[in-house]
Structure formats: structure tokens, C-alpha cells
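dumping the sequnces here before i forget
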Amino acid sequence: MKTQTAIATALASALVLSACSKKAPKILPPDPGGAVSTDTTGAGTGAATPGSQADFVVQLMGQDTVYFDTDQYNIDAADQQALAAQAAWLNKYPAKRATIQGHTDERGTREYNLALGERRANGAKNYLVSLGVDAARLTTQTFGKDQPVAMESTEEAWAKNRRAVTVTID
Amino acid sequence: MRKSLIALIAVSALLPAGLLAQQVTPTASAPAQEVDEEVVGTLDNDAKIAIPAFATNADVATQTSAGTTAALGMSLATVIYGDLKNNGLFKPTGPASLPRPELAQIQAPDYPGWQGRGSDMLLQGYVRAEADGNVTVGCYLYDVSLGQQLAKAGWTVPPGEWRRAAHKCADLAYSRLSGENPFFDSRIAYIAETGPKGHRMKRLAVMDSDGANHTYLTTGQATALTPRYSPDYKQILYLSYFNGSPRIYIYDLASKTQKLLLQSANPLFAPRWSPDGKWILYSVAIAGNTDIYKMPSAGGSAVKLTNSPGIDIGGSYSPDGSRIVFESDRSGSQQVYVMDAGGGSQKRISFFGGRAATPEWSPRGDQIAFTHIAGNFRIAVMDPAGGSMHYLTDSWQDEAPTWAPNGRVIQFFRTARTTGQTGIWQVDLTGKNERKLTTPGDGADPAWGPLRP
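..and the predicted 3d for all of it:
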């Protein structure tokens, strides 16, 4: 039943992906397409239910996202720290499942970037698994270059967009 | 789309090709009254073609969007003028600034009058409303200097397809004068984009090669990407997001329905048809490794074609179906490779510095178009061995070339820095004739279909 609900939520979110993104940032429910969770950490949400996606976002304080160098997908030291924090939270709530969403910057061709986003999400997933998170609890998604969070065409913006975002499924 | 929609008439009246070839040879030496600034394409001179409004036997109402037969005659010439002016081989003059010939002059042109206007060629015709609602369009090409007819053809079309008759007429003149195969009577599938950069709505859309007859096929509720027309124009392969992952769908144009190509938990992308429509190439990402597969389009077992630990993606068949060009980052960065259609003999062909991506084999087989990435993203072509590389465009981000059915013109999409706005652009193989297609909103991922029958 829980699995069915999760699938239904993800499905509905995918179908109304662009509509969801246009709304003001919300913490609940998670939007598999929006990946805006890091923007909402300090919004007076101290009352988030423990073990919820809202709680995950609050507790991780930005470490729900890991970042990559151009064309790369390796997990560097900062990524390891963030993923360790994610793993700690996930190990605290062993019933929770999560999706890792891979993204690229705009400076790549579309299809390659879809594959690269998957590779980044998979890199983050593998590291979480190495920290003891059951692989069966983790899925990956890729959005390629289609969902930037930083809109400029600058090195700084591209660095923010080359990312993998972990979103837990309530 | 059915063959019966266009009945080719007057084919038997065409002059033998060999005779025509002899007759057209002197046109290159026709005295030019103005000095051409540069030589482009395959003609020695840009032929000055007069395209007056088509004549009619009677100005009566039609069921076409153009209006009466007289108005349709003006519209036909305008569409032909638009086709021919945009490819750099010709200097056409459109109907707005030319007198409309009488019906009797269509098969007996006023050569001295057109010579006086400085025309090298005359492309004219007539339109006639049929009792059943169809329209018949006659198309005649004359060499004004020689005072000779070069080609003629006629088509009876349903009222909704009158523009096809114009494209057929433009194709007749283009192929007769350039020696190339025709391409105007063809369609484009692409992704129509609207909305801000961070959350674009992306809809599957189709249009004629000149941007007319534009139709949206999906609502935009699910993000659509990377369409490809089937060789028979009946179906479109494309990506659509489902449950947060891209899936490959086959959209059926007649029934307006679609079906999932494959059931998979993994992301699927880069679908491509084989030239005979019997196979579909696609890529699957599994645990960080993307490989290319093929499967029968009618359904059946998939065959894995690549096995490298990197990203192998974006295959494109040679026109004879024997080979596949694709991109792979197995060397450390995106480069272009060629393999046999069964996956054997994989060999890198791009050695230009930078990265080489999105290869597309020309329908003529002689060239491969691709995106070269070295700082900016530029459309380039090379031969199938990786030689004779040259750029066709020079902008911040041009990508995803697609070939016209005759392999002489390329469309691609251009992304603007910062705004992320996209548009479909077209360029010929000289790189000198570049223009943006008019679409209702932004456009990306163009896919040019074959010549329509």
C-alpha cells in the first residue's frame, strides 16, 4: 500500500511536472521535477514531522544536493560529507525510500546530458549504498539540462546546476 | 499522406531528361546584368527566376485556406517564392512585384517581356477548381534566355493540401536547375518550447518544411523530447517523461494515439529509425552506463550493440542501413564513432580537438553532420571516415543537426545565452545561407522527415 502511494505520488508529480514548478516553493509534497528543496531550508519549518521529506530538507541544510565538475560524476570530499549526512538520516528512518535526481548544466547536448544526469545520480546512489543504505530503497532519475536552478549562463550558475538532489518519498 | 492524395499528371509530357540536360547547359553563361557578389551552391550564377501569380481559368471560390482560385494563384506563387529564395541558389522575384500572366500565356510565355525584366528563368502556372472540391495546379519552368520550356508537371490535391502543390512546383524547379534531389515537400517534427528557462513546457509538434501547417501533438503536461519521423511519416518516435524518467513512445499520426516502445525501469533515450523503418535504435542507462540497442519496430527481442563502460548514445544509420554512426565518451569525452549495423568494427572517426556529438548520417550517405564543441557549440559536417570537416555555423550554442531529405540542407536548434530561448534554424552546406524558421514559440530538437510521395 505504501509503495502504491509512493508510485502514485511520483506519477502524479511527473504528469504535472511543469505546473508544479510554477507554484511558490513548497516543502510538501516532494516534487520529483522541481528539485527546489535546498531553497526552503530556513523558512520557519522547524515543526517538520520527523522522518518526512520536510524534515530531511531541514536536517540536511543543503546537503541533500551534491555537485559535480564539468562532465564529471565522481564523488569528491564535499560530496562524501553530504552523502554521509544523507545516509545518516536514511539509516535513522529505514522505512523511507528516496529518489536521486541527476542534472547537468546547459553546456552539453541534450541526449548526452540525459545519460550524464543518470550517471551522476547513480554515482550518488552508489555512495549511499556503500554507507549502508539498502539499494532497494533508492531509485535514480535524470533530467539532463532541462531543469536548471541557476538561470545565468555563467561558470557559477553552471556549477550550481551540475548536481544530484536526493528527495525522500513520503 | 496517401499516394492517392496527390495524383501526378502530365508526367508523360515531360521532355526526355537527356534532352533537357543539353538544353539547360547554356543557362550558366546567360549574360548577367548584375555582378554577383559571391558564388554559392552549384550554379555558376544565381539564376534570376520570375515567379508570377498563377493564372486561373475562372476566379471562383475554393475550399482552400487561400480563398478563390485567383487568390490561391497568388498564394501558390508566394509559397514557391519563399522556398526558392531561402537556399542561396536562386534570386527569385515574387508575385507581388510581377504582372500576372493570362491563362493562355502559361504554355506560351511572353519571352521578350520577361527578358526585358532581366529574368533568366520563368516559373509560372495555373490553378483550376475541380467540381469535387479538389484543386488542380499546373507548374511550368521556362528558360527565358533560350525561349524554351525546361519542365512541367501538374497535381490535383485536396483543398487542405494546396501548399504541397506549391512545394512540388518549387521542388521541380529546384531539382531541374540545381541537379539535386527535391526536398521542399517534406515535414519537420520538433519540440515546441514555452515558459521560463527553469521550467519549460515542451510539446511535440509538427510542421511543413517551411514552418506552415503547424500542429501541436501533445499538451505539454509531460515533457517531450527528441522526436524522429518514421520513414513513411505515419509515426513519430519521441521521449516523454513518465514517473520521473524518460521513456520512448511511438506516436501514431493517423489515430493520434501513442504506445510505449519498451517497459523498463531504466531511463531510455535517443530513439532512431532505420532507413527502412524495420529497426529502432535506442539507448538505455543502467547503473551509470549507457549503451545502444536495436529492436524490431514491429516488436521483438532487443540486440545490444555497444558494450563500453561509458555513455554510448545517439545512433544514426547510413542510408543503406549497413552502418551506424554514434557518439561515445569511452575515450574520456564525447566523440563520434562508426560501427557495423550489428555492432561490429567500432571505430572512432572524430579527431578535431574538443568534443563531437549528435552525429547524423546524410540521406545521400556522403557526409555526417554533428555538433562540434570547443567552447561554443557549432554545426559541422565531415565525411564518413572523419575527413573534410568544416563548420556550417558559428554561434554560442547550436546543436542537433537534422538533414533535409536530399542531404543538401540542415536544420538544427540554437540556444541563446542566459535567456535559454531556442529556435529552429536552417543552413545549407556552404554555411552561407542561414535563416531562422518561424514557429509559434521557441523550438528545439528538429527532425526532418523524408520527401513526401
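The two ends of chain A are 13 Å apart (CA to CA).
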